[in-house]
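Fresh eyes needed here. Have a critical look at this protein's tokenised backbone.
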Amino acid sequence: MSGPGGDLTYAELADRAGRAARALADEDIGRGALVAVAQADPVALLVAVLAADLVGATPLLCDHAWSEERRAQVMAAVPVAARFDDPLPEADGPAVEHRPAPDDLTWACFSSGSTGRPRAVVRGRASWTASFAHLDALTGIGADDVVLIPGPLVSSLYGFAAVHALAAGATAVVPGRWSPGGLAEPLRRATAVHVVPHRLPAVLDALGTAGGPLRTAVVGGAALDVAARTRAAAAGVRVVSYYGATELSFVAVDADGAGLRPFPGVEIDVRVPPGQVLGEVWVRSPWLCDGYLAGATGPLRQDDGGWMTVGDLAEPHRRGEVLRLRGRGDGAIQTGGATVVPEDVEEVLRKVPGVDDVVVVGTPHPYLGAVVTAVVEGAVEGAAAGDGVSRAALEAAARAELDPAQRPRRWYAAESLPRTPAGKPARGLLATRLAAGDDPGLRRLT
């Protein structure tokens, strides 16, 4: 393993985790206990996770960047046996004996998706570990690989990537945060990388500059642009993209660019209400979570048949077909009697030259209910050629490819979009800021 403080062999990692587990056991922290861990160093965080697992406790991963006020607010809603912000203490003594079981609750992390308050999702051991072999087969990741995981491990996407790399016997490179300027060095030896879609171009930029043996990019968290996959292929990098959620884990995977199909072991049922063209994606699989801690509410729903949904929308789906996602149901915009799926609009606007990324939300309107509003990263009002993108160019693209109801009526520019810890645009936060009308980081395009 390689982190900000240097390299660590598997033997050294096991020794540190074992000694930390001994210290936890000495404090009577054991099976069933919930242990909050928020170490800034990703290696120290993984040691804490492994130590908690060794004593049968459940590690609850918290964001070390939270303010003390925010942390206290979150912790008040989730009872924990202990909280560790610094590296776990280590102790000598006999090895901790805990016989792991598939249904042990071995991972909990916070998820807010793009909207709402963070809530803690908890899952059993097998809901992750039993899927490792399937990901091995899809990606080819094995003991000879060096896997770059350039994001915070408190995100389930990156956390899963780290523990999967360790289970595969690979070298996990965990810088702990996203740093485009810091990609060149690890890419000189990385053979695989886990990223969210909007960060794949930066990886390819760094690869083109520094070179390296990168052969596989595992991309999850949002829809992947076709152009990004094509560019990766030209660089000799195979892309394996997937759709899932913190609550659902893997749902569908696209390993060859032909479209999303169910991940091994997953059943998909798109339930379309009468008279509607889109339906909710319901999933039944061994990879589902156990729910939210402390009775928290959220988008996760479950029926009596063991099916779960987080409200994502898709076109009607039949077995053997490609799954065509259309966004999150709670993000749909109701405007003047029409329903607009933000992802449909974003897909069009991202193709406009000069647009780095874009988020579409609904903002209140006294007569229409809401109007479609676009916040564009990289836009420059009245930009000259080569200096960015103008509102006129954005509107021209909207007129050419979108129905009238889908076209944004309000346009904003942002130097940098706010994002979740996983790197996805924070749609709900943007909507809140727009409603407040006092965010200096958003500039109205007129």
The domain at 332-444 is CATH 3.30.300.30 (GMP Synthetase; Chain A, domain 3). The chain has a mean pLDDT of 90.
